[in-house]
Each structure stands twice: as C-alpha cells, then as structure tokens.
C-alpha cells in the first residue's frame, strides 16, 4: 500500500506542481487514524481521500522502483572501482559487473 507522501507527490505532479515542504505537511497523531494532510498551501485544491486513492497502484510502482534503485546503488562498485575495472579489464568486463547487479535487481518487477 503506497504511503500518503508518495500519493500526494503523484497528485501534485499530475497537477503540474512539485512537493514543497513549505506548502504541505503530513501528520500522524498516533490515534489509529493514520497519516493525513495537516496543512496545504498550493493554488490547487487539496486532494480528497478518494482522489489520493486513485494513485494507489502508481504509488506502489514508484515505491517498489525506489527500493530497486536503492539496492542497486548499494551494490554497485564505487565510481573509482568502476573506472579501475574499465582501465584494467576493459568495457566488456565492466558491463558484465554492472549487468549482474541490474539482473539481480530488475527495474520492472511484478507487484503483488
């Protein structure tokens, strides 16, 4: 289930806006009601729960992709090591190293 921040960012993007911490804040009162928009200072209407719900699937996709990209970033060799690999072993060796990580963490995975 996509989090409120992700769905709000998608709503803003769909309305030609970007996230700005000075214009929107999210809050959770730990009362069991979950996250909610505590303040909204955009020139567009604050999204309703129903509007945000329409971004659930897209939000799930964004969040899964971010996990994949984070995993790849952790596993790739440093830029220095990559350049050293290219210098000593050539581009094909470097491509094989990078491909192994890309194959381990494919961008387009099936959402459950």
Brief sketch in words of this structure:
This protein is mainly alpha-helical and 112 residues long. The chain has helices at 4-14, 49-53, 56-75, 79-89, 91-104, and strands spanning 24-28, 35-40.
Q: What amount of the residues lies in strands?
A: 5-15%
Distance between the termini: 10 Å
State the helix count: 5
Which fold name fills CATH's third level, the topology of the domain at 1-56?
Answer: Phenylalanyl-tRNA Synthetase, Chain B, domain 1
How many strand elements? 2
> What does the main sheet amount to?
2 strands, antiparallel
| Approximate helicity band | 40-55%
Shape call: elongated
Instruction: Give the strand line-up of the largest sheet.
Output: 1-2
> Rounded to an integer, what's the Rg over CA atoms?
20 Å
What are the segments in which pLDDT stays under 50 over at least 5 consecutive residues? none
Order of helices and strands: HEEHHHH
State the name of the first-level CATH class of the domain at 1-56.
Answer: Alpha Beta
Question: What does this entry look like structurally?
Answer:
By secondary structure, this protein is mainly alpha-helical. The chain has a domain at 1-56: Phenylalanyl-tRNA Synthetase, Chain B, domain 1 (2-Layer Sandwich), CATH 3.30.56. 54% of the residues lie in helices and 10% in strands. It contains 5 helices and 2 strands. It has a two-stranded antiparallel ribbon with strand order 1-2. A hairpin with a 6-residue loop joins strand 1 (24-28) and strand 2 (35-40). The chain is elongated. The relative contact order is 0.14. The mean pLDDT is 94.
């Amino acid at each position: 289930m996509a989090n409120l921040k992700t769905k709000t960012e998608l709503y803003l993007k769909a309305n030609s806006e970007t996230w700005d911490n000075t214009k929107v804040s999210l809050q959770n009162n730990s009362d069991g009601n979950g996250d909610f928009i505590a303040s909204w200072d955009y020139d567009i209407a604050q999204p309703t729960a129903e509007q945000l719900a329409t971004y659930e699937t897209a939000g799930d996709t964004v969040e899964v992709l971010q996990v994949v990209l984070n995993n790849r970033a952790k596993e790739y060799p440093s830029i220095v090591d990559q350049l050293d690999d290219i210098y000593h072993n050539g581009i094909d060796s470097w491509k094989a190293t990078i491909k192994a990580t890309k194959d381990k963490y494919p961008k387009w995975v099936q959402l459950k």
